[in-house]
Structures are given as C-alpha cells and as structure tokens.
C-alpha cells in the first residue's frame, strides 16, 4: 500500500487499532460479550456486501448475493462434515465454488441491464434455497448442523491458526478471524478499484458502447467481476455457517440479499468502504430500534427511505475531508 | 498494393427493409474518405457494420485483407479500426485526461494481475499512459481542459474528446460519426483542421460519415454517396459536386421532405 497518503495511513492505523484493540478492551470493561457475535456478523455481512458493491461498480444491481452466501455456507459445511476437510481449506473452496456458479449463471444473465438483471438475481436466492431443500447432499429442510469448529493449522509444527475447539474464548477468535477476512477483502477491493481493472469497470459503468469501442471486452470483464463478487459472498457465507455451526436452506433468504444491496446504498456506491459502514449502521440501527416492538420495521423503513432520499450518495458523502478513516 | 479497408458487397436488411444494398468501396492508407447521403440513406448502418457494432446480412469488410465484419466491437478495435461516437457518448464522470488514459489500455504491457499487485511493468504502463495522454491532449490543443469533467464540457469540446479517446487507443483507421453535426462554421473549420492533422501527423486513415456538405468537400480526398441504401456515386469532391445523380438525390430528397 505504498500509494496511500499519510492521512490515509493514519486512518487505516486508527481503524486497525479500533478493531483489534479498542473493541476487545471495551467489551472486557463493559462485559457485553454478546457484542462479539454482533460485530463478527457485521464483518461477515460486510464481506458479502463488498461483492454486491463490486457488481454495482459495473452498473448492475445485484439482489442475489444471499444465493452465493448460501452456496458458500453449504460447500464449506459439506466439505467439513462429510469430507473431513479442514475449515480453512473449505473456506477458499466455498468462495471458488460460488465464483464458478456465478460464471455459469452470469454467462446468460449478465447481458441484461437495469431492472431485468436485478429481477433475475432476486429470484436466484429463492432458487438456491429450493435447491438446498431438494438435494440429498444438503440434507433438505433439516440442513447441516453440529458443524465442528475450525481446527488448527500448523506448518512444520509451528501453529499458524490455533484450534478453535480447544480455545476458551471462541467468540474472540471468530471476531478476529472475521475482521481479518473483512480487512483482506476490502484491501483487495481497494486495490482492484484503483488498478486497471477498476478503471475498465468504471468505463463500462459509464458507457458500455464507448468502452467496447476502445477495445474493452465488456462481456469478459462482467463475468470476472461477477465471479469475484460471488467469491466474496461465498466466503462470507462459509464463515457464517462455521460460527453458527449449522446451515439451513433459510440461513440466507431474499431479505438478506436485499439487505446486502441496502448496505451498499446506505454506505455509498461511490466509496469502496461504503458497504462496510452501511452494514454496520444497518445492523446496529435495526437492533437499536428493538425497543419499538411491533413498530420496529415501520420506523426502520421510514429512516431508510429518508436516508436514501436525502443522502443519495450514501452516508460517506457526509464526511468532511477526503481520505479520512475511509 | 491492397487497400487498407475494403467494403465488399455489404448488405443489411432489417426484416423487409433494406438499409444497405450491395455496397462496395475501398479506403486506401492515409486517405480521408467521407460517406455522405440524405437522411435515411443508410450511412449510420454502414458505419456500424464497418465497426462491427451490427452484423452484416451479407458481404464483408476487410481490413488489411482480414475480415473484420460480424465480429465483436472490441475485437475490431484491438485490430486497429476504432470508431468515435456523437457527443452524448462519453465517460461522464471521468476527466478528459482520465478518459484518454483509460482508452490506452490496449497498449498495456502488464497483465490485470500485475496491476493488482503493482508489478514493475504496471507502474511503467501508468507512467507511460500519463505521458502519452498529456502529449496527445497537447497535440489536440486540449491541455487546458484536461482536468475538466467530461460532463461539464461544451459540445465542441465533447466532439474533440471523442476523437482524443479514439486516438488514444492507437488506431490505424479512425471512423468518425458525424464529427461536424451541430457545429457552427468556426467550430467546423477547427474540427476539419484537427482531423487533417490526425491524418498528417499521426498517419491515421480516416473514414467519416457526415451531413455537412461544405465541410465534407473541404476535408475529403474522396467521397462515397449513398441514397436509399445504395451507393450512387464515388469520387473526388469536384467529381461528386458535378455528378448528376448526386444533385438529383439531394434535390429529390428535399421534395420528399416537403411531401411533393
């Protein structure tokens, strides 16, 4: 990350400090251990949302990330439970499998634009849920439960990742693992957007005809981006399944797919780190309104509508200077 | 010597409508050739077939002896035949310089992965793209607006931006889509100079589709005239001016328009 300005470096430093030191210390002081689970969820949902943001970046509205999260969760669970594979190997495998499915599905549907593409992706989550109910390997409605915790990994006797099952505080371990994954995801996303592939995506987003006239292979790039997007979905889903130690056809539903998209809107489509902030705000916003009981959804929706109406470029458009803690 | 671009018996039918019927002509290297014709003569369709934006119904387009019709637009662009658009087709939220830089991607030596990891070749590319963008914008007299957002540019500059984007890809043939449309006399003359200098200084062959008769007569080495989807004449500007069929076509079409 040599190209970052000093201000950005300070921002990244502050962010890392907050995530890895300040939050655990605060949780220890306040004794709110349940926050670990909440924040871990936020980190994982932010990974899946990063994928959705990337499809927005090529001008496609993706309401199907739940499908790829579910695929990832199942692939990882099946590999760990039925194949006896280490979770840490099943994790990239889940991402790659989701990417492969995305390539096969993307070939026919990525030609569609606007609302047509959005509609098909919306149906996708439901299709994957129904497939999970029907296939023997996914165990139907009963799903896959009692997934063992991630085992340790050591190279030449040096432990790289400790055995989660042997740990006292698995919550903290999952929190760290999820945050590291999230940071890797966003670092990769940041690089991608600021590299040539990102520039080509921007050219396609702004004008596909002009992009193809300057020699951009738009159908190829669309597929690559959709695959990367779904890879993130698969990774997020797989990690989620491992934390919950179970996967059901209802683990990710259409509502989750919609939320992934809302996270991007809320944070800001113009900012790489928008979906991260959006996920955090959306997730906590929902919890904070819990007191309202049956009016929770109503108030929540009204606030969302207001935010999208008055901040069409997302929450990050509020920030004062450029290059803050992103 | 074989001509650089050969249009061979190209026909395009949309259902029962024939937009282009059996059109053939050649474009030599370093030539400025214009395709003109009244409204609905099939100029745009022909233009799109040459750049492979639409497939031909029959016939083919050869570039250096190689078929370039019925391919994908980006493949044709990679071979060196690049089209421009009319002013509304731009990268709206990029600056002039950014647009010209992104258009150079065909010249990239590093792979997409190399860019992601920041390889040496990728860094060299970034430097050379920036340098070439500055040089090209200087050449086109656009240095002053290089950091201007494309969506903020006036119409005349947008047309020049289109040419800049096309040139940045390093084409052998540049296809210009009505480069003078909607321009006043001064703007047109500036554009004429620009297109000439593109040919003279950069060695780019130019094929343009145009409405504006005086501009076409000034700029073209040769002219092809279409009417109702057929080629009715081909020759130097003075030959075309005295061609009876052409005069008839233009006057005839005027009659049609007022319903006589």
Overview features:
heterodimer, A: 326 residues, mainly alpha, two-stranded antiparallel sheet, 12 helices, 2 strands, 68% helix, globular, disordered C terminus, B: 260 residues, alpha/beta, six-stranded mixed β-sheet, four-stranded antiparallel β-sheet, 10 helices, 41% helix, 23% strand
What is the fold's blueprint, element by element?
The complex is a heterodimer of chains A (326) and B (260).
Chain A: H1 6-30, H2 34-57, H3 65-81, H4 87-109, H5 114-134, E1 153-155, E2 158-161, H6 170-193, H7 196-206, H8 208-213, H9 218-244, H10 254-267, H11 274-288, H12 296-310
Antiparallel strand pairs in A: 1-2
Chain B: E1 5-14, E2 17-27, E3 32-36, H1 43-50, E4 58-63, E5 66-67, H2 73-79, E6 81-83, H3 96-102, H4 112-117, H5 120-139, H6 155-168, E7 173-177, H7 185-202, E8 205-210, H8 213-219, E9 222-227, E10 230-235, H9 237-241, H10 244-257
Parallel strand pairs in B: 3-8, 3-9, 6-7, 7-8
Antiparallel strand pairs in B: 1-2, 1-4, 4-5, 9-10
Helix pairs in contact in B: 3-5, 3-6
Q: Give the mean pLDDT of chain B.
A: 88
Quote the distance from N terminus to C terminus of chain A: 15 Å
- Using the alpha-carbon principal axes, give the shape of chain B: globular
Strand percentage of chain B: 15-25%
N-to-C span of chain B: 47 Å
Q: How does this structure look, described?
A:
The complex is a heterodimer of chains A (326) and B (260). Chain A is built from twelve helices and two strands, in the order αααααββααααααα. Chain A is mostly helical. In chain A, a hairpin with a 2-residue loop joins β1 and β2. Chain B has 260 residues and is of the alpha/beta class. In chain B, the strands form two sheets. A six-stranded mixed beta sheet of chain B has the order 6-7-8-3-9-10, sandwiched between helices. The radius of gyration of chain B is 19 Å and the shape is globular. The model of chain B has no long low-confidence stretch (mean pLDDT 88).
């Amino acid at each position: 990350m040599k190209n970052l300005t000093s201000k950005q470096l300070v921002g990244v430093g502050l962010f890392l400090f907050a995530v890895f030191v300040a939050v655990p210390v605060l949780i220890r002081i306040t004794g709110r251990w349940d926050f670990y689970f909440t924040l871990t969820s936020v980190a994982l949902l932010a990974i899946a949302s990063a994928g959705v943001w990337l499809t927005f970046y090529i001008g496609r509205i993706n309401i199907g990330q739940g499908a790829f999260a579910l695929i990832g969760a199942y692939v990882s669970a099946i590999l760990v439970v039925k194949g006896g594979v280490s979770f840490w190997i099943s994790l990239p495998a889940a991402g790659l499998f989701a990417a492969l499915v995305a390539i096969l599905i993307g070939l026919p549907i990525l030609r569609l634009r606007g609302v047509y593409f959005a509609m098909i992706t919306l149906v996708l989550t439901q299709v994957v849920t129904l497939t999970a109910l029907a296939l023997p390997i996914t165990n139907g409605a009963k799903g896959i439960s009692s997934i063992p915790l991630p085992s340790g990994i050591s190279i030449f006797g040096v432990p790289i990742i400790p055995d989660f099952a042997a740990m006292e505080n698995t919550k903290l371990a999952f929190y760290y693992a999820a945050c590291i994954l999230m940071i890797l995801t966003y670092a990769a996303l940041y690089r991608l957007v600021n590299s040539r592939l990102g520039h080509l995506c921007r050219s396609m987003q702004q004008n596909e005809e002009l992009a193809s006239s300057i020699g951009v292979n738009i159908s190829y790039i669309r597929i690559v981006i959709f695959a990367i997007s779904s890879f993130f979905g698969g990774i997020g889903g797989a990690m989620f399944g491992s934390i919950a130690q179970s996967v059901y056809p209802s683990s990710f539903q259409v509502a989750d797919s919609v939320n992934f998209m809302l996270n991007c809107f809320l944070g800001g489509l113009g900012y790489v780190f928008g979906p991260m902030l959006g996920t955090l705000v959306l997730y906590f916003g929902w919890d904070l309104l819990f007191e309202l009981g049956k009016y929770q959804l109503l108030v929540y929706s009204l606030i969302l509508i207001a935010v999208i109406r008055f901040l069409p470029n997302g929450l990050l458009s509020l920030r004062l200077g450029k290059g803050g803690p992103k | 010597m074989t001509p650089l671009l050969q249009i061979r018996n190209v026909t395009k039918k949309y259902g029962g409508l024939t937009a282009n019927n059996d059109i053939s002509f050649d474009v030599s290297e370093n030539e400025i050739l214009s395709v003109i014709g009244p409204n609905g003569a099939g100029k745009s369709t022909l233009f799109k077939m040459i750049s492979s934006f639409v497939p031909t119904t029959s016939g083919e387009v050869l570039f250096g002896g190689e078929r370039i019709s019925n391919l994908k637009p980006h493949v044709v662009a990679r071979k060196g035949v690049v089209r421009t658009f009319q002013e509304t087709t731009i990268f709206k939220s990029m600056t002039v310089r950014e647009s010209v830089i992104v258009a150079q991607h065909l010249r990239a030596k590093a792979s997409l992965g190399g860019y992601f990891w920041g390889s040496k070749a990728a860094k060299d590319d970034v430097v050379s793209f920036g340098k070439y963008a500055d040089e090209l914008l200087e050449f086109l007299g656009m240095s002053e607006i290089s950091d201007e957002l494309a969506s903020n540019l006036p119409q005349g500059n947008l047309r020049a931006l289109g040419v800049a984007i096309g040139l940045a890809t390093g084409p052998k043939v540049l296809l210009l889509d009505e480069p003078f449309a909607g321009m006043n006399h001064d703007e047109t003359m500036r554009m004429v100079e620009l297109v000439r200098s593109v040919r003279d200084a950069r060695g780019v062959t130019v094929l343009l589709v145009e409405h504006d008769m005086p501009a076409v007569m000034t700029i073209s080495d040769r002219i092809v005239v279409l009417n109702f989807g057929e080629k009715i004449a081909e020759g130097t500007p003075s030959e075309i001016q005295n061609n009876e069929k052409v005069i008839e076509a233009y006057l005839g079409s005027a009659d049609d328009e007022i319903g006589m």
